[in-house]
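P.,

For your records, the input lines for the assembly:
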Amino acid sequence: MSTVYDPQAVEADAQASWNETECFRATESGDGEKFYCLAMFPYPSGRLHMGHVRVYTLADVINRYRRLKGYNVMQPMGWDAFGLPAENAAIKNQIPPAKWTDDNIDYMRTQMKRLGFGLDWSREFATCEPEYYHWEQWFFIKMYEKGLVYRKNSVVNWDPVDQTVLANEQVVDGKGWRSEAPVERREMAQWFMKITDYAEELLDELDEMDGWPESVKSMQRNWIGRSEGVEIDFPVNGSDEKLTVFTTRPDTLIGATYVAVAAEHPLAEQAAEDDPDVAQFIERCKQATTAEADLAMMEKEGIATLATVEHPLTGESLPVWVANFVLMEYGSGAVMSVPGHDQRDWEFARKYDIPIVQVIEPVGDESCDLEVEAFVEYGRLLNSGDFDGLTSEDGFNAIADALEAKNLGRRITNYRLRDWGVSRQRYWGCPIPMIHCDDCGVVPVPESDLPVVLPTDVTFEGVRSPLTTMESFLNVDCPRCGKAARRETDTFDTFMESSWYFVRFACPDANSPMVDERAKYWAPVDHYVGGIEHAILHLLYARFYYKLMRDEGLVVGDEPFKRLMMLGMVLQDGKKMSKSAGDAGDPQKLLDRYGADAVRTAMMFAAPPDQSFEWSEAGLEGAMRFLKRFWTLVGDHLENEAGPFEPSELSEAAAALRRKTHETLKRADDDYGRRFQFNTVVSAVMELCNEIRDFKPATAADHGVVREALRTAVLVISPIAPHIAHELWGQLGETDSLVGYPWPAVDEAALVQASVEMVVQVNGKVRGKIEVPTDADQATVLDLAKGSENVARHLKDKTLRKEIVVPNKLVNLVVG
RNA sequence: GCCUGGGUGGCGAAACUGGUAGACGCGCCGGAUUCAAAAUCCGGUUCCUUUGCGGGAGUGUCGGUUCGAGUCCGACCCCAGGUACCA
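Structure tokens returned:
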């Protein structure tokens, strides 16, 4: 054994051995219960950054730990290859997106291999390959035929100078990032998938998902946003039309003093025809982005129209306003306003001198002063005619009944969740397999003509998608009537690819249909690891897609991810890595200098998985030092002859080391398997190594105890630092592969201690420590506590009022 | 704005079920080794006070519950993620 730890040599050897035995290649016939371990696949942005190192190391730790526990583990890797950055690179550097993407994949794959992840590379694919997106197109048409796909108008960010649609990210301070022209809201026909049909199931199932963090379930619940309320019709005066609004507070209906509609609402457009001021206001409303955060923080503005509606219960005439905070995308694009009992309406009414009427009074001691703010709590109805005196709950029902009786309203369940808009006006994505025919309208591409292949030999002229001007792509015969027609040039949202890739990994070569029987063995994913930034969108779309696939008989079960581990962000300059500029996050130079094990150990040791932290190289030296010490510890030990030992005949010091060994084993098992906290596993192994260092073995039996401790340390650290563990395992004379070696049982007898230290508090402050026999009775403990010197001083001349004993932990003596 | 997290020494953190706050590591200080340095090894290291024993304060801020609060409750401040076209 070399006395110097050389990570480059050790790591090359270990990796060669894994490649040779193909120990990470997964098959359905493997021994043990199946375990599908998956980290969210990366977007090939260029080089790995420390955020990637973190997520893939964490997943690999779980992978390797599960193998030690006897599972048949599958851990694949692939590439989420479509996306905006490839197009930006193409526009900037004139490199075709396909080439840019392929180069990035090659570089990142090499880096991943260098990190020693136990991946089954035979399953690798990139989503930009026609063999993959073929099935996405196929499935989309299936869903179209099923009525779960439809087309409607929806708002986009329009850059009037570049004549193109911008992503929210490409809008900076309301201006296009390249043109710097103010963006406009513009409506366009787009494809949608009916995720709202599954809203109830997506919501209700969260309650059963024990393997998901509460915070993520809570975010998804709020995002889906189920609410019970009433849909109310306000007849439009001078027309047969009705203005329909939704409210969760019909108890406040009598207090409605106006209604407000979105700028794109037909009533607003009608009003604009007669009133240039309204027309001008509507134009101004278009000078905004589509981002909800911008809209929610925007100054609330509006303009009155001459139109009025009739209050459905009082018959009173209410003015119709056009307001910038009402959005056509949400519900019906209209709201009723009750300024007395809704804070936003109150502020709006104050600003524009609209009457504020109180129709709810508090029943408890809440303050209510409509001069100061709206009263938004539930209470008792007043100024509401026949409904006066009812509680809000009863008023809700009485008013809903009255509306239903007049056929001007109905109780409904409303969801905040909106249907999934999947159209993107971009080049580097999966072509939407639809054809536009002048005679037949929209016609799906026939199954036999799939896939619609994205041409990769393209040049960017300006910023618009090359597809829009590529005649060879555009021109196609209508599959229905045979006349000349045109292809859809929009591509899919990239969340489409990431919504089912994890099923495809089970059978990456399946070619009819999208997945085969192997998917039923591997899916669902048993442990899914990824960044917290995906808590809502990706995970919700993937859950939805899995249900769609279930309903097609392609997968079994209702949910795609049994256990979910959400990682905090690795920050750089206070920002998430994928957003920060430069390549300071590139791990390459760290791998060259310290090796993969040190990088992996430092990353795992830095923080618990769910916590965000600022990456710093400071921990690398420490990790490297630890690995060197570990190496030397084993080397020194091997100079001695280790013999067998009888646990009951060990010296006190040797028994203490054995106890530490088995405590470490127990703690690590709990941290790996239950708590999913790996920084403390590293600490535990460091502590064990420190105790081995401090132990002075005198006999062959003592060396045997050290051997057991080192063997345990190697096994426990192996999921985190697998290369050095592979080498030291062999050095310690083990001939079986460490990958998948059975995790040893804890010797409970080794954990038993004769006495424990207890803390003695007086009035909650620590005043002494006592050594007592384990599980000593209360009287013995109290006697020892009161007799301890410093404690006795604090008890002197005081009256003992209370004695609290927490067995084997502490005593608290309360004096007055 | 709204939803979800987070805030503990000089720094990364630990404290799992309300029971010794700061394990483990980084950094720093002192020592050994060395001609010297690097590397390595040993010791110390929350702050204030004390020669020492000890005493006091302390987990973002303010308040509460409790024998006892980093942990539970209420209000607030700051930071991060998401906010439907970044992925």
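Two observations worth noting. The longest strand of chain A covers residues 149-159. Chain A has a mean pLDDT of 95.

Regards
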